[in-house]
Every structure is written in structure tokens, then in C-alpha cells.
Amino acid sequence: MSMKVAARALLLPLVLAAILHPAAVVALGDGTPGSGGGGFSLRLVPSPGWNRTIHVDDDGFVHLNEHATSALRPPMHTQVGGMYSVVTSVGTGAGRRTYVLALDMTTNLLWMQCKPVQEPFTQLPPPFEPAKSPSFRRLPGNNAFCLPAPRGHRRTVQDPCKFHSIRLDGSADARGVLSNETLAFAASGQQQTEVTGVVIGCTHNSNGFNFNSHGVLAGVLGLGRQAPSLIWTLGQHRHGAVQVHRFSYCLPNHGSSDHHSFLRFGDDVPHTQHMVSTKIMYMAATAGRDFSAYFVSLTGVSVAGKPLHDIKELFRRHVHGQEWTSGCAFDAGTPTMVMIMPAYNKLKDAVVRHLKPLGLQIVSGQYHLCFRATSQLWQHLPTVMLQFAETEARLVLPPQRLFVAVGHDICLAVVRSYDITIIGAMQQVDKRFVYDVRNGRIYFAPENACHADAGHQI
Ligand SMILES: *[C@@H]1O[C@H](CO)[C@@H](O)[C@H](O)[C@H]1NC(C)=O
Ligand SMILES: *[C@@H]1O[C@H](CO)[C@@H](O)[C@H](O)[C@H]1NC(C)=O
Description:
This protein is of the alpha+beta class.
């Protein structure tokens, strides 16, 4: 049995152990000592079910399992491949449970199934029971976070405080009632940190999440920057000793020998040398879920060193009619790159032009652009570079970060979109990202072995 297989076999039991023994405190042997503002980390794990759809070869390329992916109905490419999830404990007393939640940095609400659930999706452990958690409080119906009342009505304190959370790409949504609850995370120095006053959405009804849950996930952790997201909450109050404006992650390749790492907050964010940074856009826009994502100014793309022309405007967020549209955001909750159509076409043309001397056969496949694989092709796949507003902020994407193997084909793992560009998880692997939400900047630097972020635990 190779290392890879052994590691894969280890992973789910590890996740399940965390779920089934909620009392076990996650010890962070390597927590970087902080300057006193407080810090803690959530375990970041590949989403359950990923091993049915992908594996990573020794060459570092992601291979999609053709049968698993073509069996998806409807085929939703953005959902195929490496998703990452976060492990967190919710509630207090007899109600405390540990759940795995899908990470989504484009929305601003943590939601999960709560009993009673109409048409539940399967999850592990069973859905949260508010009645058993003494810290659970429903928000009053006139709270600012509730959905606005229908025309001609006014919500009163007694009304349920409703929410409707929709993914930026529209692939899943959930409805329910907002409440106030306590979460618990591992802190550096081996204790659990409790964070009170976190707004969570209790859903009794959701759409499109069944497939994503893989029988394990309980909901979504929305880590967008706007209220009432977790990072917003942490920045507002002093939750015990913790007041936090920064978070960080380093996504390990799914094929590396230790798959999990940490979503680190505050003082748990390690010091990393030589980071470059770019501005988070629309920091002044304080309302509207559409601005919760981490938009950046992507100003250039080059393929094998050649810049694509007239591309900057295509990534700009702008008003179209009454609505804001387009723009480019970072999201570790989107498996692979999504690109607005006109920009995608330029990228595709440049890739085809670069590979043309090899006389390759273009085939239809899982993605829009696929080639029949040859040994020559593997060696000639181009490196793509993303250039951000500031001169030194560049994200270099070696072929392993942008191309996937699907059966006998090699595909450009970029999904076409009518309205958005997202730099997804696959492009962020093996890099340290730090989001400084207070100062409105994203920092990043290569980090060779993100799996080393797992510290000493197993
Ligand atoms: C994926 O993981 C599950 C849970 O550990 C395991 O039962 C299953 O056999 C794995 N599938 C593959 C293809 O490795
Ligand atoms: C949630 O509860 C905490 C503590 O009880 C309180 O300070 C906070 O204002 C509440 N949050 C909301 C949104 O009502």
C-alpha cells in the first residue's frame, strides 16, 4: 500500500472520530504563540466523498474519476473535485455537537439543519437539537438580520426571524430561522475556545445541498466578510479573550500524505515571510450579500509568459441595470476556477495556441476544453499567471493548478460563467493565504507543504 492510499484510508475515520467524540478537544501542538489578542483554529478537512471523484497522482496532477463525475445529475462542474470543509462544535451542555460544514467564503451565514427538518438530507451526527442547548436563542423577528417583511407588513419581536442564504453561483440555497448560539473551537495551547453570540441559521428546508452533504456535512460555514458572518462577529466584540480580524489557511493537496490543515484565526495565524498582498474591493459597501465575497482587482492573465490583451475590464465588477455583476473573488469553497465567458475564451485561445505545435486532438469532455493526453502534452502544459492591481502581487499557477486528467484526456479545469470569476481551491493549494478583514487586504505566499500545517496531531 502506497503512502497515498494509506493516507486516504486514514482520512475519513479521522473526521468521524472528531464527530463521534465531540468532547475530545483538538490539541494544537504547534499553535504559534500570539501577542495576546487571542487565536484559535478550526480543523479544515477535504469534504467527505472527494475520494470518489478525484485522486492526486505522484506528478501532482488531479485526476477526476470519469464514472463518478459523469454520474452526477445535473452535471455541476463547480461541485466536482476538491471541496474543503470545516469542523466545529455548536451549542453548549447536552446539546453540544461537532459538525463538518462546507466552507463558503462568498456568503455570510453559518447555517445547518436543525430539528425538526422537512425532507432532511443525511448528515453525521444527526441534526442539531436547539431544545437541548441552553445557549440557543431565537433572534427576535424585528432584528436587523432578518429578511425584510413582505410589503405592507411589519415584523414584531414575536415573529420568526427568517433567512434565505444563496450561494453566489446559485447552486444551493437554504431557508430557516436565525438564532444566537455558542460555538467552540480548538485554541492554541490545547484548550477549547468558546465564542458566544454567533448568529447561526437553523434550516428546516434546503435545496441543492443533498449531493454536497455526502451523508456527512450538516450545513455551510459562510465566511464572507459581512454581517453576520463568523469573521464579522469575531471582529465586533471581545468574545472572552478573543477579538479577531484575520484568518488564514493553507490548503493541502488532496494527495498529500496528511490531508487536513487548519482555518486559523487571530494569533493562530502564523508569520510568513515574503508575502505579497492585494486589496479587498468594496470594503465601503456595507450592505448586501452580493458584497460579502472577497473581491479583488484582477488586472492581467498571462499564459506561458504571454499576456492576454484587453482582459482587465472583463474582470471588473460593475452595475448592470440595477444590479452589481461580474468581478473576481477568492473562494476556498469553490473547487476550481470559474471565469467569465469573454475572458475564458481568451484564455482558451491562448492555451490552444500554445499547444498547437504538438498537433493535438481537441476532444469534448468533462470541461469545455480537453485534449487527448499524450506524454508530450504533459510536458508542454503552460504555466498561467494572474496579476493583481499591485505590481508585485502575482499568483503563479503551474499546470498542476489549472489542468486535470479525466480518463485519457487532459482538461483545462476552468468553468465558464456568465457573470463571475472565482479563484477556487485548486488554484490556492500549497499557498498560505491571510485575509486581513479590518485592513481590507489579502496576503499570500507559496508554502511548500501545507499539510505540515497539521502540526503534530493525527
Ligand atoms: C472513500 O472513503 C470512504 C470512507 O472511508 C471509504 O469507505 C471508501 O471506500 C473510499 N473510496 C475510495 C474510492 O477510496
Ligand atoms: C447574541 O447573544 C449575545 C449574548 O447573549 C448578545 O451579546 C448579542 O448581542 C446577541 N446577538 C444578536 C445578533 O442578537
